[in-house]
């Protein structure tokens, strides 16, 4: 799956996301388990609390009736004995007090609600001769018991002996005579403490309420009732509602147990984090491996499909591996090549050279190709066909073994093309040379008869002028003129062809001085045509044939004033820094853009000679040839009516320096 | 009195020879004898012969370069290599103004190189000056 996902960075991000979400989920599960475990633990404690509260109720419910029955029996015995003597009653009462722990005292109250007899006396001294009407609650209970002639339980009261409890009143009627009450004092603390073994209550807090009155409380100050671990059991006994609240003491809820939960939680979180880190590194290494294996496959495919043949050799020059291109070049299967020496692929003399060469990095150059260089050798097919082959060898080390990588390229087509190109170049230069020679010889040979024609016309005129008359003389003059014109055309043609043939002497010179000498050569013509030639003083150093460059300037200046109708003909020569070109600018008639490069065609004239004077029409052609012979380029910018800027470049000075 | 300083003109072209001749005779009094050879071989043949009253040693040679057969350069070389002839001034008079030709001719020992002027007037002027220089200003070696 990982392999299907884009690049390594994406894969790593995915892995981080997987690990992070795994860690988060695992931590959440740990926390949940921790919380469930605490709940479970609390539930167990709550159940204990519940059981204990029920046990307390059970004790209440079983001991209360026994006490009530006992007191009832005492009352009945009073009735049967029609008032027993105190000693007998005392013994009887003492027995009951001894038997029933919750019974703090048994008292006889006379018909005036005054406590007369008290057993035991010790601890209950304050009750002797107590008038029970002092308190409404007690009086009301006594009244109710007397009137209903049945026992009555008081509401919970603060006992005069101290502590809290309730009182049971048993009215005594002997016949119809009311003789007071047998009164039982229930002390809740005594009752509970006697009912519950020490062990039972030592690890729990207990609080017993009747109504809202706390009847019994045995609890730690710092631990309040908690619904999660405690239980409150409610029941009604003899019309009194009781609430028994039981909850664990601190020792029971205990740090030990809760620490276990926290330890479990911390453990869970730590394990999650550790597992996350481990998983992350595992995934990372898996991804790295998958990337490495993908890269390996990529490298293999790259080598297999390289444009050049690739052959790997071991440290003895024996073929270890061959790529598909090398198979194609040599038309052999790699199975037949692996294990053979590299030299089997070559024709003589390279076959012997490579058979004998020492496969050591520093020695390979002796007789074979130097490491890192390319050698043209002769490859050989199985059928003996020999072809040019470029071979380059590099070396590297794997597991301390020196290996060699040979890159081979079939040069058959390239060599053939190069040979054809060379042949064409030779043909072309021969043809150019012939053309130049032809132009020179033809023009040279044309000149002689031409001159003779002119000469004879002159002789004819000199010798026979009176006979010929003015018409004849005009025709002879015309003959001389046309001859001279043709002579000029031929001269220009000769000059042009010479420019093509000569190898001019090149030197570095100052453009300003070349301009100055051209200007002085032209001084008469410039004065005659009212031309001002200006030039800037900052030109780069020029490398070229000074004579030819002056001819170039000459032609451009003449062109600039010849085709110029301004009153003040101005020509400026400067170097354009932006175009890196020399510029000859005039304020002449301009060149119509439709003519384009026609201006550079030999003998091409754009204007009437009658208007702008005679010329062979070779000036700009010669200028172009000079620039071309200097490895430069010439062009112009012009606006009809406002002048022309001829630009030309010469081969860069630095390049010439290198070439020198 | 007839001047014995022979002018040898080596020129294949009748027209050019005629023009040159006319230029020499322009001022009306050419006292020097003239000898024309039409090609290089003829010139060398003439120069081979022993000198006599009838076969004068040239005082100056006007040599065209473009000659049929042996060309002017060859003739110039032969003259300048020949002890008997090397002191004769040779004026190369040719249509070529090729720098290579000029250089080569001077290297071979030419005394003057003149390009045949295009205009006849210029030719007349050039020949006149040549005449003035070689026959009036310069002192030529005595003939044998």
UniProtKB/TrEMBL annotation, chain A:
PANTHER family attached to this UniProt entry: BACTERIOPHYTOCHROME, TWO-COMPONENT HISTIDINE KINASE
Protein name listed in UniProt: histidine kinase
Entry's EC annotation: 2.7.13.3
Cellular component, GO annotation: membrane
Entry-linked Gene3D superfamilies: 1.10.287.130, CHASE domain (3.30.450.350), Histidine kinase-like ATPase, C-terminal domain (3.30.565.10), PAS domain (3.30.450.20)
Entry GO MF terms: phosphorelay response regulator activity; phosphorelay sensor kinase activity; protein kinase activator activity
Alphabetical keyword list: Kinase, Membrane, Phosphoprotein, Transferase, Transmembrane, Transmembrane helix
Catalytically driven reaction(s): ATP + protein L-histidine = ADP + protein N-phospho-L-histidine
Enzyme class, UniProt record, top EC level: transferase
One Pfam family linked to the record: CHASE
Stretches assigned to the PAS domain: 295-349
Segments traversing the membrane: 12-35, 260-283
Keyword check for Phosphoprotein: yes
Top-level division of the source organism's lineage: Bacteria
GO biological process, one term: regulation of DNA-templated transcription
TrEMBL record, chain B:
Domain Response regulatory: 6-131
Record SUPFAM superfamilies: CheY-like
Origin: domain of life: Bacteria
Biological processes per GO annotation: phosphorelay signal transduction system
Keywords from the named record: Phosphoprotein
Keyword Methyltransferase among UniProt keywords: no
InterPro entries: CheY-like_superfamily, Sig_transdc_resp-reg_receiver, TCS_response_regulator
Residues with PTM 4-aspartylphosphate: 64
Entry-linked PANTHER family: RESPONSE REGULATOR RCP1-RELATED, TWO-COMPONENT SYSTEM REGULATORY PROTEIN
Name of protein: Two-component system response regulator
